[in-house]
Amino acid sequence: MRIRWPRRVFAQVLLVQVATTAGVLMLVTGLFMAPLSSQLDHESMRQALAIAQTTAEEPGLPRELASTKPSPSGPIQAEADRIRQSTGALYIVVMNRRGVRWSHTDTARIGEHVSTDPSRALSGKDVMDIDRGTLGLSARGKVPVRDSAGHVVGAVSVGIAYDSVRARLMSTMRGLLLYAGAALAAGSLVAYGMSRRLQRRTHGLAFADISALLDEREAMLHGIREGVVALDGCGRVRLVNDEAQRLLGLGPDAAGQSLDAVLPPGRTTDVLTGRVAGADLLTVSGGRVLVANRMPTDDGGAVATLRDRTELELLGRELDSTHGLLDALRAQDHEHANRLHTLLGLLELGLYEEAAQFVAEVSQEHRASAEQVAERVHDPLLAALLVGKSAIAAERGAALRISPATLLQERVVDPRDLVTVLGNLIDNALDVSRTVGVELRAEGSTAVVRVSDDGPGVPPEQREQIFAEGWTTKRSPAHRGRGLGLALVRRLAERYGGKARVTARAGGGAVFTVVLPEALAPAADSERHEAGGGIRQGAAR
């Protein structure tokens, strides 16, 4: 039956760790037992050699070996039995120069020739080995027996039973295996705990599932049209997808760096790092309106998502402009209806001269108002904006006054930016006051926009805060959020290299000043543009 490899990460890691622990313990045990066995053998041979040397040093042994015959009841056999019993040796054999035994554990073998070669010991050398003889396998020590003149007259062979050596080894091995088993059990418990922890971290998924999830995550992150920024517990960028790089202007090397290092200070950085908390937070980055959400993770990090609401915000502002235009048209319709009723009454009363004079005055008043704006502001979009806002102000019972210092004859590089700035400032002023002053002038290629009101003003401690994204004191309309108008104004000014600020107005109220360097074309370009417009107009005529 084929054993199937487990699919779960938990089971695979546990099996590998237990197998690794068992293999390491077996290897360590083998490496320990091999030198231990050799050491025990050597110690047994040294013990046998020591007993043989002690026996050979007996004073009467050379004389008795030369003067007596081999006999079970001889003095050499008696002395050998005494030493054997006291030392626990397997045998002690005393032999003459011909290799004939004078002593042996088995007395029947006394007088016989030894079973192993005694030539080395009889030649005067000490011998240690493990060999098999008549009593079986043993650790042996052989030494020569010398007389008083130093001549070799025989030899002593001592054997230590190899079973005792093996018994010592096995007793040591039992203890070693006991410790090894305890270590294996402890290692298995540790492996089980680590595998269980890994199972919780991987949610019990298999390696194939994790690999598939990673592939799907990469495809999803780089395929969705929302920016995703993942942060670790230290606030460093762990992951940033393509859309987030585009929205935030980040490079591919942003991973591994802190957000404060790759993004400029501001609300966007504060939202992504969590210093500003909340859901669906609005922020402006690089002229784009973003909706940010931040979700903390278990490891102390967070995942932030970014949605580009620039187009939606532009549509919302266009809707605001449309509503403003409708309000202006409604105000003009109401005003024209009143004038027509007045004109109709004059005609019914037969006051024809008074009716004609009334029509002339109304026409001249309207034409004078529009012509006054057109003479001071040559850009048609800005002029139309001021005329429309004047009508809206009149409908609300407020007055929009164009400052005598207003003069903008130069061509505007991008009128839409000035429309955004001027429209937001006028709208904010009309929400809080009854009189709004507008000044729009050129200083070389720099456009200066100043809008004042007679409202409650802005406290000094809030004069920087009101330019932050999401900060507002007004109720949000249904189609979009509040708190972006002044933020967009400041971002536009900063993009041009200028600035936006608010100060107090003499007599109460606030004065918003926006400086936009390089927002106007140079004089030469402006003259060429006007000349080209004149030629085209002449050709059209």
From TrEMBL:
It is found in: Cell membrane. Its EC number is 2.7.13.3. GO terms for molecular function: ATP binding; phosphorelay sensor kinase activity. Keywords: ATP-binding, Cell membrane, Kinase, Membrane, Nucleotide-binding, Phosphoprotein, Transferase, Transmembrane, Transmembrane helix, Two-component regulatory system. One of its GO terms (cellular component) is plasma membrane. The chain crosses the membrane at residues 14-36. It is a multi-pass membrane protein. Residues 56-78 are annotated as: Disordered. PROSITE patterns: HIS_KIN. It comes from the Bacteria. It is an enzyme of class 2 (transferase). This is histidine kinase. It comes from Streptomyces montanisoli.
